[in-house]
Amino acid sequence: MFKGLFQNTKNNSTKIVNIEDLNPFNIPKHVAIIMDGNGRWAKGKGLPRIAGHRAGMEAIKRVAKAANKVGVEIVTLFAFSTENWKRPENEVNFLMGLPQEFLLKEIDELNEQNVQVKIMGFDENLPEHTIKAVREAERRTEKNTGLILNFALNYGSRHEIVHATKSIVHDVLEGKITEQQIDERLLGQYLLTKNYPDPDLLIRTSGELRLSNFLLWQMAYTELYFTSAFWPEFNEQHFIEAIYDYQQRGRRFGAI
Ligand code: FPP
């Protein structure tokens, strides 16, 4: 049983939220997550930053379980951005080793939970061992039919849109498509998310209130949810609260 205090952002009332409070007919299909605050969590405990990233992997396991339980179909996690290369070399190297450490260690449990692991991002600059580990995890879970756990790795939204634009120009010049065919739907087909619906809900942890170049095109109508919890603290209860908050929103997609 999940229990926690839910602060209604509209009228400031508080309510205890548990999983039974969720409307099973209004579960977000696709939840995107910016896993932020690993470094600050570690610092607060007097630990090196990489201890925060390691603790963050436990949070990924908790969220995958919770998402499966409530019926979310896709969780897209911002694991490494095209801007994260600016971090100190030792931290980048550590982050590049995490897919091996996490995916290969957890693969049996992920398979037991029927989870499909997917990787979304640009292979350029990624070390060979990282690419190998993620491809192997994809291969070993490709027959599963449950939650899609989609890791955005070396991903940046502007880079993705530039890449899509170049591919469209290329295909027009090659005569594969015409200029008249270019519309929002077609552009979406050139993005890395072409197989997924747009996120219904974005969760960002650690109290930061920005999108940081994550899924900018795809999140035009996504509901945004920010929590002050650091990512390594994030648990099933936080996830349930985010979904409950989402269910209080009226989504109009520009209509009245
Ligand atoms: C942000 O916290 C977190 C990251 C940049 C990396 C998140 C990655 C993981 C939790 C693991 C990914 C796992 C796999 C399998 C790919 P921060 O370091 O920016 O924290 P800070 O803002 O407090 O410094």
From TrEMBL:
Cofactor: Mg(2+)
Superkingdom in the source lineage: Bacteria
Keyword Repeat applies: no
Enzyme class: transferase
Co-factor: note: Binds 2 magnesium ions per subunit.
Residues reported in the UniProt entry to bind substrate: 37-41, 49, 53, 81-83, 85, 87, 204, 210-212
Gene Ontology CC: one annotated term: cytosol
Keywords per UniProt: Magnesium, Metal-binding, Transferase
Name of protein: Isoprenyl transferase
